[in-house]
Amino acid sequence: MTPFQRIETTATEETLPAILLRIVSELHDVAYLIERIEPQLLDISDADILASPEAMKVVQGIDLAVQKTRGIAEFIDTIAGTMPEGWTVDLATALSLVKLTEMQRALGGGGFHAHSQPMAKAAGDFDFF
Asked: What gap in Å lies between CA 47 and CA 70, rounded to an integer?
């Protein structure tokens, strides 16, 4: 029996499609955070930044990173949508490798959300930790 064929679940086992959908959500959050970098760079730079070939490469790299991240998210979302619900995975080892507590909670079953990043916070707002 492979780890993906077990039907009964324990505290650290969850269905693979549910886990993949949480990964999709995290990837969308990453794309959103990367996307926010570009206007910030343009705001703090002088007007000549768009004339610089090196600066344009950086801006294009940011755009490409967003596109790739969203593309991977959509790829995983499509796979998760066609996967049988009965497949389960033991998350204990995988979650022990995740260092960010918020991401660990999101991937570990702390509730599914569309996006975890605050969309309404103003620039300069932050949370102490």
From this structure: 29
The Cα 14–Cα 22 span in angstroms is: 11
Q: Of 95, 92, 121, 115, which Cα lies nearest the Cα of 27? A: 115
Beta-carbon contacts of residue 70 (< 8 Å; ≥ 6 apart): 27, 28, 31
Cα diameter, the chain: 62
As given in the structure block, the two tokens for residue 100 are: 């960010």
- Quote the CA–CA distance of 129 and 110 in Å, as a whole number: 19
Residues in contact with 94: Cβ distance below 8 Å, sequence separation at least 6, in sequence order: 107
Is this structure's pTM higher than 0.70?
A: no
Question: What gap in Å lies between CA 31 and CA 45, rounded to an integer?
Answer: 22
Contact by Cβ (8 Å): 65, 5: no
What are 29-48's pLDDT values in tens digits? 999 999 998 888 877 776 67
CA atoms lying within 13 Å on the CB side of residue 108 = 16
- CA pair distance 49, 125, nearest whole angstrom: 27
